[in-house]
Structure formats: C-alpha cells, structure tokens
Amino acid sequence: MVEHVVIQAEERETGRLEAFSDGVFAVAITLLALDLQVPKLGNAASVGAVAQALARQWPSYIAFATSFFTVLIMWVSHHSIFKLVQKSNARLLFANGLLLMLTTVVPFSTSLVTQYLRSPAAKMACAVYGGTFVLISLAFNLLWYGLLHDRTLLRADASEEVIQRIDRSYRVGTPMYVLATVGAFLNPYVTIGLCTALWIFWAFTARGECEQ
Q: pTM value?
C-alpha cells in the first residue's frame, strides 16, 4: 500500500514536469509564426504585387519550417525520454529547466535568420542560429546523461534497446550542430541545410523510440 502511494506521488511529480515542459515547447513553437508577416500594400494592391511581396519573404518560410520541425522533434525526443523516467530529482529538474530556457531562444535566432539571410550579416545570423542548437544539444545531453548516471530515476522496465538508440542518436547532435555553426562562415545555407537534414534524421529515429 505504501509502495503504491509512493509510485503515485512519483508519477504526479514527473507528470507536472512534463506538463510544464509541454507548455514551454508549445509557446516556443507558436512564437515562430510571428515572423510570418502579412505584406502591407494597401487595399489597392494587385494580385501580382501581393504574390511578389509574399515571394520576397522566402527567408521567413525557410527559417520557420526548419525551426518548427526542429522544435517539434525536440518535443518528441523529450517525450521519448520521459517515457523512461519514473521519478525526478533536483539535478533532473535544473537540467530540464536549462533545456527549456534554451528552447525559448529558438524564435529569437530564427528571427535573426529571417531578417539577415539576404544581407552581408547572413553568416553571423546563421552562426547564432546554429550555435543555439549546439547549446540545446548540449542541454539534451546533460539531461540524458544525468539519467544514465542515476538509473534509479528510470523505470525498472525501461528498454535497454531504446536507451542505447537514444544514446547513439545524441552523440550525433552536438558535433553536427558545431559543424553547421562553423559552416555558416563559409556559406549561410550550409547551416540551414545541415539543420534541416538533422531534423529529418531525428524524425526517423524518434519514430522508432515512440513506438517502444
């Protein structure tokens, strides 16, 4: 009876953590849409003028799509991790808080890319964009390896296969985002291309984790 009460208390604790995290991810992903601006051409604007104005905003569409799907995959990955967690501690809470703080920076770095992708400052804007994901990747690793360091936080029935799969995928993230950040100084589109390729890669790996 006592054990059952303890389990219920632990589930409520991790449930609160996940609910808070879901809210932060939802806000971050919603804020990305603020960069999608309606052209202000007046009521007399022609169809062609509106079409051209929309087309000129193509950096907004690229940055929005890349960031949206990246944050979406981050949320899916976060969900996959917490399917394995049975309780939390202070280290886990602070590591998760760091991850969420960095997630809220994504709309800012996305705005930089939107604003400066077609300017001489494009390299710096994309470097900041890539650097944001370097920090997020490090935060994910801090969260993940904190769990591996104290496996009492994991469910007793946590699949070792899933744990190893997550572990392998996280080893890829940081070096690839560092490459994307450095690549910005060669060509800004290197950053956009690598960040896009990474969310596609994790879309496939996350699907296998969620099915476990």
A: 0.85
